[in-house]
Design a protein that fits this description.
Protein name: Transposable element Tc3 transposase
GO molecular function, one term: nucleic acid binding
Oligomer: single chain
CATH architecture: 2-Layer Sandwich
InterPro entries: RNaseH_sf
Shape: globular
Order of helices and strands: EEEHEHHEEHHH
Radius of gyration: 18 Å
Strand content: 15-25%
Distance between the termini: 26 Å
Number of domains: 1
Length: 209
């Protein structure tokens, strides 16, 4: 697809959800640290703290959102958000220009009504589980939201030590507004290189500078 359509990567709207907790902890479960000895470090953190589930889209034209879910993300409330918030925002940004909408294989995204909605509104132009362009299962974290956006936003939001959910949400929106378009463009342009590095490493870990 990239070879057949040179502008393909720049036309993708990458999307994902993330959870922000009031404890100010950035989830780095995919990080691996090498050392000569096992430090046997125990990280203590509170559980069941209040938080916010947030959706955001990232493209070479700007961010779409962030949008806030009320409660757990389900197929039904994701579909409602697509129709009421996400797609109107995309249309405002893209007008009549073509774009491809990407989502991963999370259960809410795979909901039958969600896929039907995307088929109806984006015939042949969405990327996801059982979509016209398949999103690979258990793929490495190579989308711009995974390798850049969520970590950047959480790092900055938690520096500000929000005291309640309303302040937390305001800070999330503020940090997203501070990200420049130039940074977003560089992120989208780096996806091909990152993907090729992963292919060259046969799926093993590699250094990314």
């Amino acid at each position: 697809m990239v070879i057949r359509e040179p502008g393909f990567m720049g036309s993708i709207i990458w999307s994902d959800e993330a959870q922000f907790k009031l404890n100010g902890t950035v989830n780095r479960h995919n990080c691996v640290y090498w050392g000569e000895e096992n430090p046997h470090i125990t990280i203590e953190k509170a559980i069941n703290l209040p938080g916010i589930n947030v959706w955001c889209g990232l493209s070479s034209r700007g961010l779409i959102g962030p949008f806030r879910f009320e409660g757990t993300v389900t197929g039904i409330n994701y579909l409602t958000m697509l129709a009421d918030s996400i797609f109107p925002a995309i249309r405002a940004l893209y007008g009549n220009d073509d774009f491809y909408f990407q989502q991963d294989g999370a259960p809410p995204h795979y909901h039958r009504d969600v896929r039907a909605y995307l088929d109806q509104n984006l015939s042949g132009q969405w990327i996801g589980r059982r979509g016209p362009i398949e999103f690979p299962a258990r793929s490495p974290d190579l989308t711009p939201l995974d390798f850049f956006l969520w970590g950047t936003v959480k790092d900055e939001v938690y520096k500000r030590k929000p005291r309640n959910l309303d302040i937390l949400w305001n800070e999330i929106q503020a940090v997203c507004r501070e990200i420049s378009l130039d940074v977003l463009i560089r992120c989208t342009e780096s996806v091909v290189t990152r993907t090729q590095n992963c292919i060259d490493a046969a799926g093993h870990q590699f250094e990314q500078y």
